[in-house]
Description:
The model has no long low-confidence stretch (mean pLDDT 93). The protein starts with 7 loop residues before the first strand and ends with a helix. The radius of gyration is 14 Å and the shape is globular. It has a seven-stranded mixed β-sheet with strand order 2-1-5-4-3-8-9. Strands 6-7 form a two-stranded antiparallel ribbon. It has one domain: Glutaredoxin, CATH 3.40.30. By secondary structure, the chain is an alpha+beta fold. The chain has five helices and nine strands; from the N terminus they run βββααβαβαββββα.
Amino acid sequence: MTKIPAVTVEGQDGPIALGRVGVPLVVYFYPKDDTSGCTREAQDFTALAADFAQAGVRVIGVSKDSLAAHGKFTAKHGLAVELASDPDGVACEAFGVWGEKKLYGRTYMGIERATFLYDADGTLVREWRKVKVPGHAEAVLAAARDLAASA
């Protein structure tokens, strides 16, 4: 049984203490605002936002981008998903999503696309690592609905 890391990220409406949300929570980490995969993922979660809300599950997308970048990203694509900033990488480290990546033969440090589902007590229910975007938000919603049904 793994508990959610007691870290705080910066939300549009102020700090979000992830360990103290008090409702079932999806935290998804993504590399960068306004890139193709990250845009598609945010759009997919946005399309299902009402379904997550109906299941009583809060969804928060986290990257190291600034709140200003998140604001532009949200406005440009009409996103309804809550985005948070982790500028110093504390949350990325705590969730184990910061690491070495390779692209076109180049090695660099970055955020691994990963998603975590926690119950209202902050206990990990399911995690998805090295996420492939197509169909992912739907899979997370199915797990969130299962969680809501068992509560």
